[in-house]
Write the C-alpha cells for this entry.
Amino acid sequence: MLSMPHEVQTDPIIQYALDHHKSVYVPSTNYDKHIMQFQQLEDLNQVGVDEKSIRYVNADTPVKNDLDLVVVPGVIFNHAGYRIGYGGGYFDQFLSQYQPSTISLVYDIQLSDQIPVEPHDYPVQELIIAKT
C-alpha cells in the first residue's frame, strides 16, 4: 500500500523491501470498472497521484493479484480487524476474492470497537499499532 499523508508511512518499508530485492505490488484502481488490482512497483520514482488523490504506479509494470501479504488501509479499525475504509469497497472485494494474508498499519487513535460490521466486510488478520 502506498500510504496517504495521514496514514502510517509505508515508503520507508517499501524502499527497504526494494533494496533487499523483494517484489512489491501496490493497488491500482480502475474506477470506471470498479476493479482494483496490484501492480508492481520497481522504484518509488514511478509513483503518481490519480484523480482521487490516491498514489499509484504510473509506469507499465506487471500486475499480480496472487500475493503473499497485503497491507490494508482504513480510517478506523476494531480489535477484531474489521475496519471502515474509504468508501469504495475495493479492498473488501479484493480480499474476499483472493484471500491473502493481511495486516494493517494503524495509529492507536484509529482503534474503536464501536464500528458497524456488514456481512460483506472482510477483517484484517493482524493490526500493527503505532502509538501516538
Q: What stands out?
A: The first strand starts at residue 25 and ends at 30.
